Structure formats: C-alpha cells, structure tokens
Amino acid sequence: MLKNIPPILSPELLKVLCEMGHGDEIILADGNFPAESIGKDAIVIRADGHGTVELLEAILQFLPLDQYVEKPVALMKVVDGDPCKPTIWDSYKQKLNESGNDPAKIEMVERFAFYERAHHAYAIIATGESAIYANVLLKKGVVQ
Predict the structure, then answer these.
(1) Cα gap 48→132, rounded to integer Å
(2) How far, in Å, CA of 6 to CA of 57, rounded?
(3) What is the pTM assigned to this prediction?
(4) pLDDT by residue (tens digit) across 31-51?
C-alpha cells in the first residue's frame, strides 16, 4: 500500500497512468461500452463495481490534461432521436472544475467516431457505471 493514493486506483491502473505519454488517450467506459472488443489493441483494465465519476475524480489528481489541444476531454454524444439527457455529464464538469480544469473544454463526439478513437486509445477502463452515455475520454498532457 502507498500513502495518499485513492484506493479506487488499482496498481494496474496506476501503472498505466505512469506509462502513458503526452497525447495518449484513456477511456473511462460505462458498463454498456464494448471495452473488450474495441480495446483489442489497448490495455483493458476492469474496474467493475466502480463508477466513472469516482474514477475520474481520482485520476484527475494525477493525470494532467493536454494543454496544447483545444478540448482534451471527450464525451460520447447522444444518438440523434434518443430522448436521453445524461445528467452524469454535470458531475464530470464538476470534477473537472474541482481539479482545476476547464469544464468548457469538452468535445462532444458522435458515437461511432468515439468508438474509432477508442480503437486507438492507450487504455480503456471498463467500469460498472450504469448511467448511459457515461463514457469519457481523457488526453494526457505534460507535467510542468
């Protein structure tokens, strides 16, 4: 065990966060996301039983977001015609703000374009999040 490390961050996840370089992307995937099939070329980390909000909060303590791109955070846009209004996005914005990041720097990405980006992600964290459209992509920045 280590001091001051949130227990929600597994040793495997901490290792991945350390290995990632500037510009690498990581996905926090909800329970419906096809993490194993899309993540064939990525590291897939199981975080069953954990939600995306709690993981986002813990990760943002250690992972700098890319300051050289306009929008270092991406969310999966609601499919046209779907009446869903994802309230979890408000929690994401709150956690970004609390961590000193600008919640306005979120890109909304069409579902299949999000999947395509996930194909190239460094890692996908498969959570037990039950909210739909709860997938969030983070682009790693540099430590200054």
Answers:
(1) 15
(2) 10
(3) 0.96
(4) 999 999 998 888 999 999 999
The residues, ordered by sequence, that sit 6+ positions from 78 with a Cβ below 8 Å of its Cβ are: 84, 85, 86, 133
CATH numbers and ranges of domains, the chain = 11-139 (3.40.1650.10)
With tokens 């227990």, the residue in question is 7
- Measured CA to CA, the distance from residue 123 to residue 24 in angstroms comes to 9
Q: In whole angstroms, how far apart are CA 123 and each of 10, 52, 98, 139?
A: 14, 15, 24, 11
| Catalytic residue positions, numbered | 22
Under 8 Å between Cβ of 126 and 47: yes
* Closest CA relative to residue 101, chosen from 109, 111, 93: 93
Greatest Cα pair distance in the chain: 47
pLDDT digits (tens, 9 = 90+) for 70-94: 999 999 999 999 999 999 999 999 9
What residue type is assigned to position 129 of the chain?
Answer: E
C-alpha Rg value of the chain to the nearest Å: 14
Q: Output the six-digit token pair for 13.
A: 């996840």
Q: Cα(71)–Cα(21) distance, rounded to whole angstroms?
A: 17
116: number of Cβ within 10 Å: 12
